[in-house]
């Protein structure tokens, strides 16, 4: 049997779909499992024991080229899907549930195309089988596993199986050695920024928390983030009195997973790296405002979510219209109490 799993983006969402690959492998141990994904999140899949093949959908590349080379770009896309169709998939399981992913399932030519009954953007038009989901709010991981029920896949446990290659392990060790980080102090990673300005906390507060971790709790602190976050992290470190380390923009996703695997605690907001820390079984403290922690919070019981009772919380706005009231209502003291609880319990 040849199975195509479709979850194209983003980083956190791809992490949320990884347990589907594990459960599919357990249900169909002899199947050839292929995952189609966009370039940004592909590293998460490399080395995963539950996935035989990875196909990159070059959507962003096509978008850029289409502006000036419409005909040649359409030919490229046509050739891509012709090649995909030649794989002769038995099943295409779309856990993404958008037009682009459902169209991918349709153009794959799979004999059986399965997706969520509540898919958006007209996606359900492309499915032969539509999986009904609970009306109650459930976490995205549980939602994805519910969709997998459509191909008789059920998960007894949730596992991500993000696997570092030897060269990635070596790179992680080199980065920690560069910062002179060893086992004598507890290691706390902070990822202060997200792709939505509305989800970000305040730089000064991050600086206060990091100073407290280093000065009062005898921790090493590493700030992580994307290349675009590096300047912001420098600003936070400049506000500090103690010495912290800046890894923003210096790791790929698998190396970042390795850093989180070595950490005693992760602190951040609703972003892909937070979910990556969860996948590496690192305890997480997450700050939530405009998004819903029930559906998109850190999965499992080994974590703490801090949020306010602001009336405008869970608005799902990328840019805040209310002066970030929901995020500002989370205080430094609240976060430090959660940190002390986590580090004291050792959980």
Summary tags:
single chain; 16% strand; 6-stranded parallel beta sheet; Rossmann fold; 347 residues; alpha/beta; 2 domains; 13 helices; globular
Strand percentage: 15-25%
Percentage of residues in helical conformation = 25-40%
Number of alpha- plus pi-helical segments: 13
The main sheet comes to:
6 strands, parallel
Gap from first CA to last CA: 41 Å
> What is the CA-atom radius of gyration, in angstroms?
21 Å
Question: What's the number of domains?
Answer: 2
**Structure summary, number of beta strands:** 12
CATH architecture of the largest domain: 3-Layer(aba) Sandwich
Overall body shape: globular
CATH top-level class of the largest domain: Alpha Beta
- Helix/strand order: EHEEHHEHEEHHEHEHEHEHEHEHH
Structure description:
With 347 residues, the chain is an alpha/beta fold. It has two domains: 2-151, Rossmann fold; 166-345, Rossmann fold (3-Layer(aba) Sandwich), CATH 3.40.50.2000. The protein has 13 helices and twelve strands. It has helices at 11-27, 59-66, 70-85, 99-107, 140-148, 166-178, 203-215, 230-239, 253-262, 272-279, 293-296, 325-328, 332-345, and strands spanning 2-6, 32-38, 53-57, 91-94, 112-116, 129-131, 186-191, 219-223, 245-246, 265-269, 284-288, 303-307. The chain has a six-stranded parallel sheet, with helices on both faces. The protein has a six-stranded parallel sheet with strand order 9-8-7-10-11-12, with helices on both faces. Strand 11, helix 11 (293-296) and strand 12 (303-307) form a beta-alpha-beta unit. Helix 9 crosses helix 10. The longest helix has 17 residues, at 11-27. The radius of gyration is 21 Å and the shape is globular. The mean pLDDT is 94.
């Amino acid at each position: 049997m040849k199975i195509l799993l479709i979850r194209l983006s983003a980083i956190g969402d791809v992490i949320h779909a990884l347990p589907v690959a594990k459960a599919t492998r357990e249900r169909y141990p002899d199947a050839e499992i292929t995952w189609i994904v966009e370039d940004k999140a592909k590293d998460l899949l490399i080395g995963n024991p539950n996935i035989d093949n990875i196909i990159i959908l070059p959507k962003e590349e096509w978008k850029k080229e289409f502006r000036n080379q419409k005909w040649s770009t359409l030919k490229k896309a046509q050739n891509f899907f012709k090649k995909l169709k030649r794989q002769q998939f038995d099943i295409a399981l779309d856990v993404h549930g958008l037009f682009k992913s459902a169209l991918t399932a349709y153009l794959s030519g799979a004999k059986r195309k399965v997706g969520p009954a509540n898919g958006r953007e007209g996606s359900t038009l492309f499915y032969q089988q539509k999986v009904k989901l609970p009306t109650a709010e459930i976490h995205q991981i549980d939602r994805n596993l519910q969709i997998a029920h459509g191909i008789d896949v059920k998960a007894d446990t949730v596992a991500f199986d993000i696997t570092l290659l030897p060269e990635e392990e070596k790179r992680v060790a080199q980065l920690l050695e560069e910062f002179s980080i060893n086992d004598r102090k507890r290691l706390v990673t902070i990822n202060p920024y997200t792709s939505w300005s509305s989800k970000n906390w305040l730089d000064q507060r991050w600086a206060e928390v990091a100073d407290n971790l280093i000065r009062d709790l005898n921790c090493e602190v590493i700030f992580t983030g994307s290349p675009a976050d590096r300047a912001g992290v420098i600003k936070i470190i400049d506000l500090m009195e103690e010495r912290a380390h800046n890894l923003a923009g210096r790791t790929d996703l698998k190396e970042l997973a390795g850093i989180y695997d070595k950490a005693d605690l992760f602190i951040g907001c609703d972003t892909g790296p937070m979910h990556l820390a969860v996948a590496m079984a690192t305890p997480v403290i997450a700050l939530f405002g405009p998004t819903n922690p029930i559906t998109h919070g850190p999965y499992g019981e080994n974590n703490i979510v801090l949020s306010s009772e602001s009336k405008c919380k869970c608005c799902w706005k990328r840019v805040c219209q209310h002066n970030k009231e929901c995020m500002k209502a989370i205080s430094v003291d609240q976060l430090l109490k959660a940190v002390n609880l986590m580090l004291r319990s050792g959980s």
